[in-house]
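Sharing a chain and its predicted structure for anyone who wants a worked example. Both blocks are below, sequence first, tokens second.
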Amino acid sequence: MQPGDSVDAIAASQNVTAQTIIYDNQLVYPYALAVGQALLLTEAPDSSGEDASGSGTAALDAAKYPAYAGGYAYPFISRWVLAQTLPYLSDLFIFSYGFTAEGELVPPQLDDTFMITAAKNYGVAPILTLTPFGPDGRFSNYLISQVVNNETAKNTLIENISAQILERGFEGVDVDFEYILPEDKFAFAGFVRDIRTAVNALGYPVSVALAPKISDTQTGLLYEGKDYGLLGEAADYVLLMTYEWGYTYGPAMAVAPLNKVRQVVEYALTKIPPEKINLGIPNYGYDWTLPYVKGASKATTIGNVEAVQIAVARGAEIRFDETAQSPYFNYVLDNAEHEVWFEDVRSLSAKFGLVKEYQLRGMSYWQIMQLFRANWLLLDNTFAIQ
């Protein structure tokens, strides 16, 4: 957007109805726009698909590529948001099922039956997401060690997962473990392989989430326990968790900068075939109060639509980092400066471009709790979702 742009003026210049722009981009009455804001136009003015207005809008890409799309959701998701999103998904990852050290399965605190039913009604596969959360609600590498190194506990857990699939109608399993101890690397890969054997026998796939590594020797508890080569072989497919460079307790920066995401993809491709790789995509942004103070600062998670609404309300100009391929802006509230990074149709289009460029299997969203309609419309036009 340029200063002075309006929905009506853009609609007239682009041969799109104002109501379509408002609906597709979830604009809020009185439909004010932020300088630098990107809009999705679902009716391009010419066959090139390029924006002719000069106002920072993004038109849809006409060339489709067959791909997969998954999305993670908690059982407290709005049923309306779920219904709005399911038509664009292949899989719905229901977050999450825990387990005890003895291998007993721990279901979510809230009933997830409506999610399983809704997914099936839309022809979407409901996926049981397995996580090793301890009593404190955090990933527990102790719990991981207890199960992956104990045949009895491991077999009990796999039997319980299989029973849950048969009884509840799940159509796959996603293994989302973090902070695996380096010494458990091989046992964890064997654990994923054993789950896959059992779940494949029921006719369904198993995936595993991978921290965003860029080398075999990358240090840190997030990375050392996850061997891309071993896990790529053990699972039917993988999710690259290519987000959280900008995160709650870190300095202000893009959540998923394209240059960093590309590094992870290029490393993954040296270990895993592209047809087994799903690119992780964040469906959120962060609002930081500046200056950042390590150990004291904490960002607020916000939705992508909410980010633009903040920019409009504060009169902030949205800028676009060409290296990170991400939008951001600054504003002042109560004498404190804020910096916001989020996703828009430009940043998402760049990520979709990576999927096409490297011929990846598709993408998975963390998470779909807030509706970002422009993303799903762009996804639908860019890919033939399988």
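Comments welcome. Confidence is low (pLDDT under 50) at residues 44-54.
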